[in-house]
């Protein structure tokens, strides 16, 4: 104990082997300590899956979009034939029939508290939920050996975490770069952000992108190295091959809290030649992941985009209904 502050650590054992460790904060964040029940008598390889399946979450089976899907339609300020972020929740409800909005820093017009209050109020009024902030600011490198460069990135990300906290978001994600980083620096920087986020009730996410796309185990390995206040956000599209994609999703979904369900060019009936969207869904569902599923799909034509987002919504709803029926044995 230092400065009157104690840290409680809870360790769960199976057959004499320590299999999961929680801080007090993490333990209390799991509804009713249900994770303990899911661990008793279960081998280590099934613990994560049990937790996904047995702990009901408010965002289970919820669908939404990442705001990067509206790259061509969103504008910081009102313009002809353009949307603003303040209008998006109503449009999500009335035109797309979805409730989850996963934000990108590029789609926030400002981080001024008054503006953030307006964004949050618009979401609340429409019955939508803001979940995540993808911190995609360009030319930042939290992995740099140069302390000044690294601190600039960390300070920028911390300011974004402040904004995420003000918006009531659950998560924030820094952007992986293309070159593989010095892992010692990378993990230390991530941990600094995770500690900062924990104080503001924001969990940091790891998404497969950049240097991570060639290794199916990259997300799980990094989450394990970081250790605290961190989870996975698998992206169905960001893998260098189908072989890596399906294996990567199989490894990542068991520790996922949200998913970027990315779709490239779609055919008129939802055909997706780039990779198998239903297989991606099934890997997630069979791992115990239930949502939220956030579509990432862009099109310059707003009418076509909305038609395709509705098609994706219908596909996921049909797949979830079928999977749930199969799971129940009915």
Automatic annotation (TrEMBL):
SUPFAM superfamilies: Xylose isomerase-like (SSF51658). Coiled coil: none annotated. Residues 95-242 form the Xylose isomerase-like TIM barrel domain. This is Xylose isomerase-like TIM barrel domain-containing protein. It comes from Gimesia maris. InterPro entries: IolE/XylAMocC-like, Xyl_isomerase-like_sf, Xyl_isomerase-like_TIM-brl. Pfam families: AP_endonuc_2. PANTHER family: BLR5974 PROTEIN, HYDROXYPYRUVATE ISOMERASE.
């Amino acid at each position: 104990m230092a400065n009157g502050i104690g840290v409680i650590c809870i360790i769960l054992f199976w057959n004499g082997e320590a299999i999961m460790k929680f801080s007090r904060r993490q333990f209390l964040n799991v509804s009713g300590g249900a994770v303990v029940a899911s661990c008793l008598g279960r081998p280590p390889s099934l613990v994560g899956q049990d937790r996904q399946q047995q702990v009901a979450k408010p965002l289970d089976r919820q669908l939404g979009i990442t705001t990067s899907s509206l790259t061509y339609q969103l504008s910081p300020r009102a313009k002809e034939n353009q949307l603003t972020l303040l209008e998006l929740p109503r449009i999500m409800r009335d035109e797309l029939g979805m409730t989850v909005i996963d934000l990108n820093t590029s789609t926030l017009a400002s981080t001024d508290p008054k503006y953030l209050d307006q964004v949050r109020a618009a979401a609340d009024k429409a019955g939508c939920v803001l979940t995540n902030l993808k911190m995609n600011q360009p030319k930042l490198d939290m992995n740099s050996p140069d302390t000044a460069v690294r601190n600039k990135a960390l300070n920028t990300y911390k300011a974004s975490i402040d904004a995420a906290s003000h918006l009531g978001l659950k998560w924030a994600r820094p952007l992986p770069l293309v070159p593989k980083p010095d892992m010692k620096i990378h993990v230390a920087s991530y941990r600094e952000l995770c500690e900062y986020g924990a104080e503001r009730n924001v969990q940091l996410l790891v998404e497969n992108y950049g240097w991570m796309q060639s290794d199916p185990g990259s997300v799980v390995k990094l989450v394990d190295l970081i250790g605290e206040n961190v989870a996975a956000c698998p992206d169905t599209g960001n893998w260098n091959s189908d072989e890596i994609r399906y294996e990567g999703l199989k490894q990542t979904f068991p520790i996922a809290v949200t998913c970027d369900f990315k779709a490239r060019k779609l055919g008129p009936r939802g055909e997706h030649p780039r990779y198998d969207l239903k297989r991606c869904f099934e890997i997630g569902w069979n791992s115990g992941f239930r949502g939220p599923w956030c579509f990432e799909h862009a099109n310059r034509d707003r009418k076509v985009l909305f038609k395709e987002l509705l098609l994706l919504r219908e596909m996921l709803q049909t797949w979830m209904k079928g999977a749930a029926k199969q799971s129940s044995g009915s």
